[in-house]
Design goal:
- With 383 residues, this protein is of the alpha+beta class.
- It has two domains: 170 residues, Endonuclease, Chain A, CATH 3.30.870; 184 residues, Endonuclease, Chain A, CATH 3.30.870.10.
- It has twelve helices and 15 strands.
- The protein has a 15-stranded mixed β-sheet, sandwiched between helices.
- Helix 2 links the parallel strand 2 and strand 3.
- It is globular, with a radius of gyration of 20 Å.
- 44% of the residues are buried.
């Protein structure tokens, strides 16, 4: 990781805080806007963001929207037509083809959620362009985070977005678009240190996983990880167990509601060994948990798009921001502990051992299915 000094970082909780900040930034754009998202829903939030992109393109801003071919396979035709008329460009990462054919590459998705405006303001996190609410109001919102960035790191986000856009444009149209050089903002005198860490299948295959492992190995007091899908390999599990063995308190805040059946139950096959190692597990049940964040010793933090499972760590394109700043880490830690108190339930080790036989059997069946998918993707040694 290459930490950059002099940034202003803002923790954004859920879409309620993220989307107003994103739209405000887009409305202030003067040169270019890059937006990458896995999901782009045809709902109120999708309309809000699409309208902002169209307004920017209409006043001459270069607008480039990159969506995933599987996650956003139902991208609304009305959005596409509106953006095209305004002059915005839309590209699709690995367009989804017939469901009847199964290919390994279909599992290699663009799972990043990032945006950059003029190389001055950027956003990275786990929040898709979709309404926060999974049911009628007043249902609690989907639990997620993003980080707003001003300063030198915003230039890094813009450069990374431009690189991926260029690759996708070349693969689809054999055209390499020009990349005007953005204005480099001066570091802020009292700014914060942060690093952008991405995962791809070429030069950065294990960068996010290795960054996590380095922070876990350096922790001395507490590790708090909140993640929607937790299905770590052996190295990751050993690192967490090793942290507990040297006196670190390790807390996992995980999805308590069933969103996708196989990953939900497959992860539970690992809970017994994690609890026996002394790791605390909290299941968030107030709403769907979609966060991918962590806090280490209350002074360093991570916010991004990467789950801790083989699909994020070994297959998808992901982007995380690691932050070396006690103030930011303390704010995220307080938010996570508030969420645990208000909407999570601890899993006692003894109670977990007394689960019904059929529940344990279903977890191991789901675990076997998940492992088979990993092997199919070419990662038989992921354990």
């Amino acid at each position: 990781m290459q930490y950059l000094d002099g940034n202003r970082l803002t923790l954004l909780r859920n879409g309620e805080q993220y989307f107003p900040a994103l739209v405000e930034a887009i409305d202030g754009a003067r040169a270019d806007v890059y937006l990458e998202t896995y999901l782009f829903a045809d709902d109120e939030t999708g309309s809000l963001v699409a309208d902002a992109l169209a307004r920017a393109a209409g006043r001459g801003v270069s607008v480039r929207l990159l969506i995933d071919g599987f996650g956003a396979r139902d991208f609304a035709p009305r959005f596409r037509a509106m953006l095209r008329r305004a002059g915005a460009e839309v590209l699709v990462f690995r367009p989804q083809v017939s469901l009847w054919g199964l290919h390994r590459n279909r599992l290699r998705r663009m799972h990043r959620k990032l945006a950059c405006v003029d190389g001055r303001r950027a956003f990275v996190g786990g929040i898709n362009v979709i309404d926060d609410y999974d049911g009628p109001a007043p249902a609690p919102p989907r639990f997620d985070y993003a980080v707003g960035i001003e300063g030198p790191l915003a230039v890094e986000v813009r450069a990374e977005a431009g690189r991926l856009w260029s690759r996708v444009a070349w693969s689809m149209r054999r055209v390499r678009p020009p990349h005007p050089v953005p204005v480099f903002p001066a570091p802020l005198a009292d700014g914060q240190r942060a690093a952008l860490v991405v995962r791809d299948s070429v030069r950065h295959r294990r960068d996010i996983e290795n960054a996590y492992l380095a922070h876990i190995d350096e922790a001395r007091e507490e590790i708090v990880i909140a993640v929607a899908y937790f299905f770590p390999g052996r190295r990751f599990r050993r690192a967490l167990a090793g942290a507990v063995a040297r006196g670190v308190r390790v807390v996992l805040l995980l999805q308590g509601r069933v969103e996708y059946v196989v990953p939900h139950y497959a992860s539970r096959a690992l809970f017994g060994s994690l609890l026996e190692a002394g790791i605390h597990i909290e299941e968030y049940r107030r709403s769907f948990l979609h966060a991918k964040v962590a806090v280490f010793d209350g002074c360093r933090a991570c916010v991004g798009s990467s789950n801790i499972d083989p699909f994020s760590l070994l297959l998808a394109r992901e982007a995380n921001v690691f932050v070396d700043d006690a103030r930011f880490a303390a704010e995220l830690r307080a938010s996570l502990h508030d969420a645990m108190r208000a909407g999570a339930r601890a899993l006692p080790s003894q109670e977990w051992k007394r689960r019904a036989l059929w529940r344990r059997a279903w977890s191991w069946i789901a675990y076997g299915i998940a492992r088979s998918l990993i092997a199919f993707a070419g990662y038989e040694r992921y354990h």
